[in-house]
Every structure is written in structure tokens, then in C-alpha cells.
Amino acid sequence: MGNGLSEQPSFLSSFPNFQPLHIAILGLDSAGKTTVLYRLQFNEFVNTVPTKGFNAEKVKVSLGGHGTVTFHFWDVGGQEKLRPLWKSFTRCRDGIIFVVDSVDAERLEEAKTELHKIAKTADNQGVPLLVVANKQDLRNSLGLAELEKLLALKELGPSAPWHLQPACAIIGDGLREGVEKLYEMILKQRKTLRQQKRKR
């Protein structure tokens, strides 16, 4: 699910992948952000405690046909008092991962508000956004179509390329596929910016 960026671009092999891509991992507290980070880093479940500030890790991720790509992930605490800090972590980022608890229907409106606030910040215009629908393994989790609607992803507009990825961070299902989509969106965005510069 996404807004037209899911096709496999033919230009992917023409970009160097040795420079780390800076990615902010955001979302409400208890959504599973740190579990996502350490599942990507160690490929195993790491028991976590609520993040009081942030975790920063450089992680090499093997992405199918793209080889190994190095990401610098910044996992920022999601408690309400920490959310004003998100702005400084999204500045100059290549992409944003926003983790949503698919089971916690009561807090989806809150998640939507924070997601739109981040996506519509002037500094984040055009920054690709991967929305991770976490905890999809649980029986009472909401489906993707419902999450897309409740998070009003289509209202983000053309300046916020996004992809909604079903996932289970504990066992890792869907995470690499999601990161691969994010990588493709980042490359597509860079190509667009280069073309715009040439036209000026």
C-alpha cells in the first residue's frame, strides 16, 4: 500500500550505497519502535524498556537486489513530553519510519495527529515516510485498509511519499520489505530532486 511509489524503479543500481542513510524512527510510546530497531540490527528479539531519550545505531541491512545498505537509525522516545524533540531528529533526515500499534485502536487518532504534524513540517516536505503497522500477528489487529483510513494517509498529499507496511517487529515479519520500500522511495526522491536542479 502506498501512493504510487511501489513499482520497482530501474535506476536503483546507479546510486552508491556506501553512505549511511539517516532515518528517524518515530511513533507513540509502546508502538514497538525500539523492537523494530534491534530486530533490524541483530535479527533477533531484544527485550526493551521505554526509551527515555533516543537510541542511535548504525545498521547494515541486506536488501534483496540492492545489496547491503547502511542506515543510521535514530529511535526517539514516544512519550508525550518527548515529542517536541522529534523535530530536531527529523531535520536533514533521508527518511522517516513511523511505527503504529495496529491493536491500539483507541490511540490511532493521537498517532494520526502526530504523524501528520511531522509529515507536514516544512523541513520534512518530500521526505519519504514508511508507516510500519506493527503487531499484525495479533488476532485483534486492524487491517491495512482500515489503518490507512484511520491514519488519513491519503490526506498527506503529494509532498509526502509514503508506504504502509504490515509487520511484526518481535519476529521481524515485514520489516526488511518495509525498509526496502523506504530505500526505493529515497532513491526516487533523490532522482526527482536532481532532475529539478537540472531544469533550473
TrEMBL record:
Subcellular location per UniProt equals: Cell membrane; Cytoplasm; Nucleus, Nucleolus
Task: Give residues annotated as binding Mg(2+).
Answer: 34, 51
Q: Which residues of this UniProt protein bind GTP?
A: 27-34, 78, 134-137
* InterPro entries in alphabetical order: Small_GTP-bd (IPR005225), Small_GTPase_ARF (IPR024156), Small_GTPase_ARF/SAR (IPR006689)
Membrane-spanning ranges: none
Primary role: Small GTP-binding protein which cycles between an inactive GDP-bound and an active GTP-bound form, and the rate of cycling is regulated by guanine nucleotide exchange factors (GEF) and GTPase-activating proteins (GAP). GTP-binding protein that does not act as an allosteric activator of the cholera toxin catalytic subunit. Recruits CYTH1, CYTH2, CYTH3 and CYTH4 to the plasma membrane in GDP-bound form.
This protein's name: ADP-ribosylation factor-like protein 4A
